[in-house]
Design a protein that fits this description.
heterodimer; A: mainly alpha; 13 helices; globular; B: two-stranded antiparallel ribbon
């Protein structure tokens, strides 16, 4: 497997075929040219379909509420930030945004730490019942959240964690998916490296921190991307366990907003802009790693 | 008995004893390391996955409204659900969702990957643009599309109207509610499938394709006979993941339609949520979630067993 996924175009095929007659070349080239143009047009049209809704969200959010009923207008003559004002009055959006970010960052870090440690334990330590324990880990991977939602909700009530950050984090401190992916990565690190380090007097901790962790970076990136996106998108669990606006994350905040402003689309779209912009910035900055991380998962 | 014969076994015993103590010490140290490396993941998984999992089975065997005492009903929740008309309906809607969503994202994602796998201007920009909805949360996507598909003054119907096409009621119409959800979901995940398929395409050795070209295979033949079979591991991954996620669809339905109108777009997880938090029937909800789990497990198992027939592993 390539260490770093490059999405560069493959080299043009070398002309292995003997050159055809000049007439054949020109018709072939013409047809090829038309095909390329068609392909380009399709990709372009697709990109418009993918990007236009984002633009439309912004346009709606600055359209005066009264003129929304007149039907869609692409050019807003009298743009206003009134919807953003209403948004910030209704919900503590900055705090909700920060909640979303820090819950995503903390749960990603936790999953990376707990996952890498477990991966090392399963890949490098020998102990009785290892296979059974690993199978139990995998079993938790198969059980979807909705099976756990009711008892987990009760558990949070019993532990008095309802409506807290801890409750938001609880189900994503460790992920069996991460353990599984990272274990495979650790196993692909040659054991000779560990042995050489052991001879040099290194213990588990040093082998773990200085040999294993640096060598499984692509897998760590994949786990990080999925953990972050999972937390950022998470809706069902916050919906169940959070009531007060100050502990809400963006998806829950937006759904609440929509519940209050069912027909005021300018406000709802202002809220959407509020949650799209930060993640779009993160995405643009980390784009290559994010796409490589996702691509990496599919090659397993 | 002489001293020598007496001494020898004793010496052996001593060495055996010390060796035993050493290995026992090492075993304890090893156990310490195992605990050190596994506890950080094992404890939360135990507390927040295993315990709720077992309690969920327990709850599913009771009649319970989350407040008053639980009443044991055995397997009644399961038998009731399996014969219930509503269960059949929510499973049907979920199945229809998957049946609409999967072909859209797969064919669309593969087409895009094929188009972007060749050199073209602004390729990186297109790839980034197609992937942007993937990082946007489901709730946002559902809201943006709910507005785009607004039956009275939404953009899509305005365009359809201008073109003289019929304007569906989308999420306000029982017939169109599910298609509206499918459309927005496919829009969100297209880029994800594209990236997976693109990675698969780039893993295909170019000499195989070249060899086929030399042998006189046209683009069409190359696609069906070479590219698609060699992409089968990526296809398999996309199908398995999409079905697992598709059967658990919830966020976009909850936001766009709330399962309506008149339950026309209610899906299994939506029903689990409503049973628990709207109707106070937590026992039935838990039982339903286990039935869904069994269905997902079965479908995934069938796919994994069936993959030998069509997935070519390099």
């Amino acid at each position: 497997m390539p260490d770093q996924l490059t999405l560069a175009p493959p080299p043009a095929p070398s002309p292995a075929v003997p050159p055809p007659a000049p007439a054949a070349i020109s018709t072939a080239r013409r047809r090829w040219g038309a095909l390329t143009l068609l392909r380009y047009a399709a990709v372009l049209a697709g990109a418009v379909v993918m990007l236009f809704p984002f633009l439309w969200t912004v346009v709606t959010s600055i359209t005066p509420e009264g003129s929304l009923a007149d039907g869609p207008r692409l050019w807003v003559e009298d743009p206003t930030t009134a919807a953003y004002g209403t948004l910030l009055e209704t919900l503590p959006m900055w705090r909700i945004l920060l909640n979303s970010f820090w819950i995503a960052v903390v749960s990603t870090l936790l999953q990376l730490v707990t996952g890498t440690m477990a991966a090392y334990g399963f890949a490098r330590l020998t102990f009785r019942g290892k296979n059974v324990v690993f199978a139990l880990y995998l079993a938790t991977l198969m059980v979807p959240l909705q099976v756990l939602v009711v008892p987990l909700f009760i558990e949070m009530k019993v532990l008095n964690l309802q409506d807290t950050y801890m409750a938001l984090l609880a189900p994503s401190i460790a992920s069996a998916f991460g353990v599984f992916l990272l274990k495979q990565a650790v196993e692909s690190v040659p054991r000779e490296l560990d042995e050489a380090a052991t001879i040099d007097g290194a213990g588990h901790l040093r082998i773990f921190a200085t040999i294993i962790v640096p060598l499984i970076r692509p897998a760590l990136a994949t786990v990080a991307v999925f953990a972050f996106m999972g937390s950022w998108n998470s809706f069902l669990w916050p919906l169940v366990v959070i009531r007060s606006p100050e502990f809400m994350t963006l998806p829950l905040g937006l759904s609440t907003l929509h519940g209050q402003f069912t027909t005021e689309w300018d406000v709802v779209m202002a809220g959407s802009v509020f949650s799209i912009v930060p993640i779009a910035i993160v995405y643009l900055l980390a784009q290559r790693h994010i796409i490589a991380g996702v691509a990496h998962s599919g090659l397993k | 008995m002489t001293a020598t014969t007496h001494g020898a076994p004793k010496a052996v015993a001593t060495t055996r004893h010390t060796r035993g103590a050493g290995s026992r010490g090492r075993a304890w140290r090893n156990r310490g390391w195992v605990l050190f490396f596994l506890a950080p993941s094992a404890v939360p998984l135990l507390l927040f996955t295993a315990v709720p999992m077992i309690s969920s089975i327990w709850v599913s065997l009771h009649d319970w409204n989350l407040i008053s005492a639980m009443r044991w009903v055995g397997l009644d929740n399961y038998t009731d659900l399996l014969t219930d008309e509503q269960t059949r309906e929510v499973f049907l809607h979920t199945l229809l969702y998957c049946a609409g969503y999967l072909p859209l994202v797969y064919v669309g994602g593969l087409g895009l990957a094929l188009a972007l796998n060749q050199r073209m201007p602004a390729r990186a920009f297109f790839r980034a643009a197609y992937f942007l909805p993937v990082v946007t949360s489901w709730v946002v996507v559902a809201l943006v599309w709910k507005w785009l598909l607004n039956p009275s003054n939404g953009l899509v119907n305005t365009i359809l109207g201008a073109l003289g096409l019929p304007e569906p009621g989308w999420w306000t119409d029982p017939t169109w509610a599910l298609p509206a959800v499918i459309l927005s979901s496919a829009w969100k995940d297209l880029g994800f499938v594209m990236v997976i398929m693109l990675a698969g395409l780039q893993a295909i050795p170019s000499d195989v394709v070249e060899a086929a070209t030399v042998d006189g295979a046209g683009p069409w033949q190359r696609f069906w006979r070479i590219t698609l079979p060699l992409l089968s591991p990526s296809t398999f991954f996309v199908v398995v993941i999409s079905l697992i996620n598709g059967f658990q669809v919830f966020d976009q339905v909850y936001v766009m339609t709330g399962g309506g109108p008149q339950g026309a777009s209610q899906v299994v997880v939506g029903q689990v949520y409503d049973l628990t938090f709207r109707y106070g029937r937590a026992g039935e909800a838990s039982a339903l979630s286990w039935i869904l789990f069994a269905v997902i497990l079965l479908i995934t198992a069938v796919q994994i067993r069936g993959q030998k027939r069509w997935v070519h592993h390099a």
